[in-house]
Structure to design on (159 residues):
């Protein structure tokens, strides 16, 4: 009789393929098939849908951000155009006001020049009248002085 070690007896049994191995192997394959159909496929479908929805939401968020940027850019462009138009209108009104001011100043200058000319004419006329009055008065005074000096009346005609 030959002696076999207990480790050798077990090693022979573990490596030997018998009916139980085939049953376990088929059971595992059936369980994999059943679990794949009932658990893994639905879970994978839910995870895929979740991933798709997440990616869809991210895509939608990117789209909304792009739309926001586009609208903001359009708003800023319109605002810039409105400011430029307002500045243009303000500059036009300022230019018109300056032209009206220059026109008013010109009209006042013409009026003042007319008043100055009228005043000069009046002064010239008054000077002529004053000269004539002074000349007449000077003759009368001269006649009075002469008649007092000579003691006799002298004509106001000059001699």
């Amino acid at each position: 009789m030959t002696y076999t070690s207990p480790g050798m007896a077990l090693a022979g049994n573990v490596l030997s393929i018998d009916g139980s191995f085939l049953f376990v192997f088929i059971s595992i394959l059936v369980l994999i098939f059943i679990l794949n159909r009932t658990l893994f496929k639905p879970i994978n479908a839910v995870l895929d849908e979740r991933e798709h929805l997440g990616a869809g939401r991210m895509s939608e968020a990117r789209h909304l951000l792009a739309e926001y940027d586009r609208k903001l850019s359009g708003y800023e462009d319109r605002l810039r155009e409105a400011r430029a138009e307002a500045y243009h209108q303000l500059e036009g009104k300022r230019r018109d006001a300056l032209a009206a001011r220059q026109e008013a100043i010109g009209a006042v200058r013409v009026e003042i020049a007319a008043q100055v000319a009228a005043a000069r004419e009046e002064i010239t006329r008054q000077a002529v009248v004053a000269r004539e009055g002074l000349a007449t008065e000077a003759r009368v005074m001269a006649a009075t002085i002469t008649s007092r000096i000579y003691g006799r009346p002298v004509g106001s005609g000059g001699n």
Observations:
- Helices lie at 6-15, 19-150.
